[in-house]
Design brief:
The chain is an alpha/beta fold. Helices cover about 50% and strands about 10% of the residues.
Amino acid sequence: MTWERPALERRVLSALDAEPPRVPVLLGGCGSGRTSILNRVAALFGARRSRYIDVERVASTPERFLAAVTCAPPSVAGNARAPLPHAGPRTPRAAFDELLAFLGREGTPPPLLLFDEFLEVRTLESFPGLRGGAREFVDALANSPHRFVLASRYVNRARRLLHDFAPRMELVHLPPLTAREVDAVLLEGSAAHDETARTGLGRFVHALAAGRPSYVHAISAAVSSAVAPGRDPVAVLAAQMAAGTPLSQLCRFSYELRLHRARGYGVLKAILGILAETEPLRLTEVARLLGRTPGSTKDYLSWLEDVDLVETREKRYRFSDPVLRLWVRLHGQRTAPGGQERARAVREYAAERLGGNGIAAAAPSPAPAVSLRRPSGDLIEID
C-alpha cells in the first residue's frame, strides 16, 4: 500500500528545489512509509526524469550496482529497458570509481536518483580496495551538482555516516501516523462508515499500532474483514499476533533483519527477551538478568541501539517499537503462543497503550510538530 504523506513529500521537494539542492534523507523504521514516499516522488517526476533504485536488491557487486544506476529508464512506448552497459574487464575498484564519476559528472544531469536503503552500499566494502566505500558513495552524492533522495531504516547508522556531510544533507525523520490519518485509512478500508464510530475505532487502532503505517494497515485490514471477531481491535490484534499472520510476519521481518545486521545475534535475542518481559531496565539490571558483566552487557546494548531495536531514556533501556516488544514476548518462547496466551498478553498491552483496562478509547494524538533543529555541522533534521 502506498501511503500519502503530503507534508513530508513537500519537504522532500523543497529540499530538491533549494539552491544549491540538498539531499533529503528519509529515516524511519520498518513499515514507516519510506518507500511509499520515494515512489510517490518518483511518480511526480515521471519515468524519464527519475529512477527509483532499491539498493538492497542490486548492491551485490560493484559491477551490478553500476549497471543498475547507469542503465536507461524504461521507455514510455514499449516499457522495455535499454541494454545494460557492456561490463568489460574491470576490477571491482574500477567499477566503483566509474559509479562515483557518473554520480558527480558535470554536464547533462542524470534523472533524479532515489536510493532506497542506501546503507546497503556497505555490502560492497567486502571487495578489494572498497573498504570505506559507503563513505565514498555519500561523499560523491554530497559533492555532486545533481539531485538525489536517500532513505534508510537504520536511523542511528545513517546519522553517524552523514554527520560529516551536513551542509548538503537534510534528515527527514518519518513520524507516526496521526489519529486523523488513521481515520482516513479506516475510511478507505470501509472499516466504519459512521464518522463517530470510525473516530472511536481510529483512536484504538492508532494507539495499538503506535501509529506505524504498516501496523495500522494490517490491523485496519483485519478489522475490516468479515471474519474479524466483532471488529474489536484488541481481539483483532490478538489474532494478528498468531504465527503466519500479516502483522506477525511484519514483526518477524523487522526482528530478524535487524538482528542479522548487528553483532552478537544470540545474546542480543536474550536481551530482547528480557526487555520484552520487563522494561525499562538499567544497565546493571539487564546485566544481572543476563548473567554477564556490566561491561560486556553495555556492548551488547550498544549493538542493539545501533540497529534501532532498543533506545535509552534516562539511562533506562526499552524497545524502540512497542508492537515488536509484544511480538517478542509472545514468540520468544519454546512453542508458538496459543489463543488464550495471545489474548492475555494483548489485553495487558492494550491496558498499557490505552490506559486503565484497555477498554476506554485513547485520546486523539495531535499532529506531530515539525521543527527544524541544527545540530553540530548545520545538519537540518525534520522531526
